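Collaborator request, handled under Task 6.
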Amino acid sequence: MLAVNGVYRFYSPPLFRWMTWRHSSSKLFVGGLSYDTNEPVLKEAFEKHGEIIEVNVICDHKSGKSKGYGFVHFVSEDSASKALAEMDDQVLDGRNIRIEYARKK
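Structure tokens returned to the collaborator:
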């Protein structure tokens, strides 16, 4: 912790912040999805890159329609890295998808 003007703040060294920002992990954020894309379609598109733990397409609570983004969680970081490299800006269900490592809330 670091005290600034009497207020304690958590301090993290620059290397730790960089690694957290980079956040090389096995979970990917997938944006730009078609509103018709569902979890089985997303899983099928990504499973050729490695074993998947979980696929989530985020939906509106009232309508049940997709919000246009989701998450794909792979077993390994290597599979996620390969999927990110090969699938970013590719067409899925008629839309170019954007992929990046998922960030923690």
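The cover message to the collaborator said: "Helices lie at 14-22, 39-46, 77-87. The longest strand covers residues 66-74. Please let us know whether this matches your experimental observations."
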